[in-house]
Amino acid sequence: MDTLRVIIQRIVTIFVVVGVATFFLACLIRLLPGDPASIMVSNALPDQVANIRRISGLDKNVFGYWWQWFSNMMTGDFGYYYQAAGNNPVSEILKRSIPTSILMVVYVQIVALLVSVPLGLVSAYKEGSRFDRGLQSVLFVLSSIPSFALALVFSLFLALKWPILPPLGYAKPTEDLFMHIKYMILPVASLSVGIIASYTRLLRADVIATLKEDYVMMAMSKGISNSRVLWKHVLRPSSTTLLTSAALNMGALIGGTIVIETLFQIPGLGYEIAFAIVTRQVIALQTLIALVAFAYVFFNSTVDIVANVIDPRTRERRV
Amino acid sequence: MFKRFLKKPFGYKLSAIWIVFILLLAIFRDLIPGPAWDESTEDLAVGPFSPGHFFGTTQDGFDVLAGVINGARLSVMVAVTSVLIGGGIGTFVGITAAYFKGTYDRVVNVVFNMLLAIPNLVLSLALISVLAATKDGTPASDGRKVGVMILSLIIVIIPILGRIARSATLQWSTREFILASKSVGTKDLTIIRKHIVPNVAPAILAIGFFAVGVVIIVEGSLSILGIGIAGGASWGSMLAIGRSYLEFSPWETYFPVAMIAFTVLSTNYFGDYVRAMLDKRESKI
Fold first, then answer.
1. Nearest residue on chain B to A274, judged by CA atoms?
2. B268 interface with A at CB cutoff 8 Å
3. Other CB atoms within 10 A of residue B101 CB
């Protein structure tokens, strides 16, 4: 019963946050100097502008405009890119860009977890050793370097000086899997380095705490090998924070990929956001940002609910 | 004071020296000899360490060293003003919300959560694209762009520091000494000023340092996306131009990239350091 209440509460929160956030965005768009309809399409004819205003709801007041947009979103109508040549539905772009972004984010998460779990375990086990201290310093430095800096350095050395990998571009995995992987290596690497650093530090802190538990001592004294104790007995109870923050990162990553997608010309959600801004497609932009915000809040809430179901201790803590 | 400084860890010294160095560059930009940052010379795309151009020149003949020094001023100005103003507002709102509670606190909490629900780069992108728009769709002037950028970064910073201030205040306001102070009839503002602010300050300071890094990175990202400051006036803007020539004159890109990376590294180090000190103090209580 308690869980059900939390779930309902969370779902309501998602809609309130996304609703209020997009309403503010709608207000901002209406505050734009000049008419948004004529800003989106340069040199538009008067009847074209009138048409755009009618379709997009810009002829109504802020509330009417927002409500039309919001209710359309709910029914799967994501608005249009308004161009002089004709209106292009945003959903067409989303069909292409969302899978691309999700693939990239999933790759980043997999790579980050694969690298950070062993690193975190080992450095916690050897807490205070030269290896641990060295790794901590290296990770601290890596976590501070912005991903676009890494992207530029990687593409300079691995794509231009020694052309092992393509410097930019994208191929769909369904069309050419090999090229897809080749195109993805540099962007995924530049995004995951910082995340590896933060995941490793998180896991290390938790593993250090777990290693002090009595049952670990017990397992060790039974003569189970160290690596078995670490992987079987220590990793699982220590991984809650890591998995929570990995899940929270999903939403943030979709936003964080904007620069990387632009640098590597990968047609994902972030690239489309940047494109919508440059071409001043404010309505498409509103939709795209709403989707990112929704993804972010959705992942946050799901993590909360899942944590609540799995670990009853969090219920009391949250009161 | 100098003796105390020598006792600090190596990373602390390095970060402190770097930050002081950048601040000096930003303040004394005009006193530093060398070519002007916005006047092109006849040496096009000269490599680094060549005579007259220690960091080389760009494809258009601009001196990279001069550009980097000039960029320090703009990057520092944008970062410091937005974090100070945004942090100030956020801290004030966060502390008062957590202290007075009630409807005010609930509203503040919803607004903070809403702003935090949008990734900070996306939020500043949206704000800038709306705020910097002109009536006829022409690009805004550079001065206005800087103003708009600072304004939108302030809005990005407010909830980040506000939430920290709020949660820290919530923790402290239930302590006995606050209760004691209240029960003898001390004014609310005096309690906030004398008891809450000094106690929540370290947590806010730590996040404030991280926020400076966030701002510098966002500034660079905005330039890469083509809506930041143009014309090589900031580090981000320099690398946004330079990255097109990455193959031919990589120094154009990697000097500003290095400046950004070192500066963010230093501010993050301080953030981490303050937080570690804070944890140590908390564990003693």
1. B225
2. yes
3. 12
pTM across the whole model: 0.85
Q: Alpha helices of A145-225 — where are they, by DSSP H?
A: 147-154, 177-211, 214-221
**Chain A residues in contact with B225 (beta carbon < 8 A):** 258-259, 262, 274, 277-278
Whole-angstrom Cα distance, residue A148 to residue A151?
A: 5
**What span, in angstroms and rounded, lies between the C-alpha atoms of B188 and B136?**
50
How far apart (Å, rounded) are the C-alpha atoms in residues B156 and A121?
35
- Say how many C-beta atoms besides its own lie within 10 A of residue A30's C-beta: 15
Instruction: Count Cβ atoms below 10 Å from residue A216 Cβ, excluding itself.
Output: 18
Interface test with A, best of B15, B118, B136, B247 (most A CBs within 10 A): B118
Closest approach of A29 to chain B, Cα-based (Å): 6
H or E stretch covering A83:
strand A80-83
Q: Considering CB atoms only, which of B11, B118, B225 is closest to A292?
A: B118
Say whether residue B118 is in contact with chain A using an 8 A CB cutoff: yes
The structure tokens listed for A286 are 């509103």
The pair phi, psi for residue A224, each rounded to 5°, is -70, 140
Q: Which domains does chain B have, with CATH numbers?
A: 55-284 (1.10.3720.10)
In tens digits, chain B (285 residues) has pLDDT values of 778 878 888 888 888 899 999 998 888 877 777 777 677 776 666 667 777 666 777 777 677 787 888 888 888 889 999 999 999 999 999 999 998 888 898 889 888 887 887 777 877 877 777 777 665 556 667 777 888 889 989 998 999 999 899 988 988 888 888 888 888 888 888 888 888 888 888 889 999 999 999 899 888 888 888 777 777 788 888 888 888 787 777 888 888 888 899 999 999 998 888 888 887 777 765
The CA distance from B259 to A54, in Å, is 49
B158–chain A Cβ distance below 8 A for any pair: no
Contact assignment for B130 to A32 by CB distance below 8 Å: yes
Tokens of B128: 């800038």
Q: Which pairs from B135-143 meet CB under 8 Å and 24+ separation?
A: B135/A33, B135/A34, B136/A34, B137/A34, B137/A39, B137/A42, B137/A280, B139/B230, B142/B229, B142/B230, B142/B231, B142/B233
The interface predicted TM-score (ipTM) is 0.82
CB atoms within 10 A of CB A182: 15
List, in sequence order, every residue forming a beta bridge with B57; answer none if it has no partner. Answer: B63
Q: What is the DSSP string of chain B?
A: -HHHHHHS-HHHHHHHHHHHHHHHHHHTGGGS-S--TTS--S--SPPTTBTTBTT-B-TT--BHHHHHHHHHHHHHHHHHHHHHHHHHHHHHHHHHHHHH-HHHHHHHHHHHHHHHTS-HHHHHHHHHHHHT--TTSPPPPHHHHHHHHHHHHHHHHHHHHHHHHHHHHHHHTTSHHHHHHHHTT--HHHHIIIIIHHHHHHHHHHHHHHHHHHHHHHHHHHHHTT-S--TT-SHHHHHHHHGGGTTT-THHHHHHHHHHHHHHHHHHHHHHHHHHHHHHHHHH-
